[in-house]
Specification:
Colanic acid/amylovoran biosynthesis glycosyltransferase, EC 2.4.-.-, Rossmann fold, transferase, 2 domains
Amino acid sequence: MKVCFVVDKFPSLSETFVLDQIEGCLERGIEVGVVCNETTFGKERNIDDPRWRNLPGGVEQWWGALGPLRPALRKWSGKLWDKASTALDIAFARKLEKYDVIVAHFGNNGLRVARSMKRRRIAAPLVTIFHGHDVGAPMHDGTLSRYEVVFRHGALQLPVNGFFRKALIEAGAAADTVAVHHMGVDTDTIGFQAVAREEAALSLISVCRLTEKKGIEFALRALGEVQAKRPDIEWTYTVIGGGELLDAMKQLAAKLGISQRVAFLGPRPHSEVKQRLSEAHVFLLPSVKASDGDVEGIPVALMEAMAAGLTVVSTYHSGIPELIEDGRTGLLAPERDVGALAQKLAWIADNPQACEQLAVAARRKIEDDFDSVRLNDAFADTLFRLAATRAAA
């Protein structure tokens, strides 16, 4: 069976879930190819792996030799960009015809494929995986119906959480074509170790791109409140990741008087991230709905932290409560509630033994519901079923 993954950039350090899913397909005997807007080989050395260069189906740019024109055309707005990009998508869509199933990551790529299917009579079943901004932003501005052509021409919509599933069905997708499919982590490669903490300073860590929806502003403000109200608590905070808000977050830490306890490390290799996770006590990700409607799906970083044995602290946001149950597998606070978040952090400092119990329950949750081996088995079964249905037709 030949399966095409349609993505924006490939390979992408911020989308390792795509690489994990491709690897899972390869391990199950599926021939995988990739169609993307831009290749990043030689640019993101942390994932510049021969496996991605040498996929059985190859890695192709959707617009071929015209791919470099995309950034310039993207400066156009509204209907002009939509018409021009759609025309080029259709003109270069022939490369999709050789596949048995097409998997589009993010709704925008599902939309591009569906439009091309409509015009080019591409017969391969389309599976669109919805992750976050692709649902949250159109929900915010009332345009979720933009995916009507995806619902009509696609075989299956796979949102990463139940919150998105409900939204897509309300927007017009047939309920029997929408199923939740979680992203996951390989629990076999993540060693569980609830770091012992008695008199040691509380070590907190965040791993994310520094964008509005990650809520790092509220993590810093909560720690500022902890420092002011509970000076007896010793703590340090490490932030791994780059992004447009990096400088602003450094300035906020200085303004709050906590910069001496906060280390902004920028992007780091996955091996170093794993090592730092193994040495930390708390994983902090107080996600929020961004001003443009962008929301999380269910952050893989939270799953990795839970599998590794950290106490996780997040928010009642999008699909996160499907992963974390407050007081049982981690701690949740309302979005943007600095006081509630500070109380959760103080509780962690005061209750090390209870945190170990949370960590054990969190690991079990990941093994049961978010293990990538099981999820990739289910995903491959879905692809084989779709290919068989097409062949029978």
